Amino acid sequence: MRDGESTDLHAKLAQTRLLAMDVDGVLTDGTLGYSSEGAEERRFHVADGLGLVALRQTGILIAWVSGRANPLVERRARELGVPHILQGVRDKGAALERLTRELTLDLARVAYIGDDWNDLPAFEAVGVRIAVAGAAREVVTAADYVTDRRGGQGAVREVCEMILDALDQRDACLRAYLDSVRAPEDRVSIQDEAPSP
Fold this sequence. Notes:
CATH class: Alpha Beta
Number of domains: 1
Largest sheet: 6 strands, parallel
Strand order of the largest sheet: 5-4-1-6-7-8
Number of helices: 8
Radius of gyration: 17 Å
């Protein structure tokens, strides 16, 4: 990425009010496992969870948009306090358009993280397009930025930190997080507990 492109991306991320993302291949490594009873299994990266919790503390909205529907995704979203879960979605661009209308939010202020062809309609709709490392070639070509990390291996955390940096909120989020995990007698002030990553 050239310096001018980097500056432009930083400015766009500073305007972001909603971070939306695919689930399989972005929040997970894209593999599906099954227990001996046939139940589907997913693995989420804990660092991604902490990044999303920190981002929410700045007022950034979070949405997960998945072509598949799975109760494990709902469970993880609840653990992190992610309010907007769109599952079983074929046209992710149309789904984001509906969501932003409900939230009275401009699509130009939405950043989206994707990895495969089904994310391209979302890329067409939003202001900032981010591909994870190892994404499909067409997704990488359409992206404003490609993460260093792969999906399910900290790519979402990388994007969260980029947005926190663009908002100049990283240090404040770190202080708030450390304050929230200290024992009550060690806290300077008691704040509402953030969801556990």
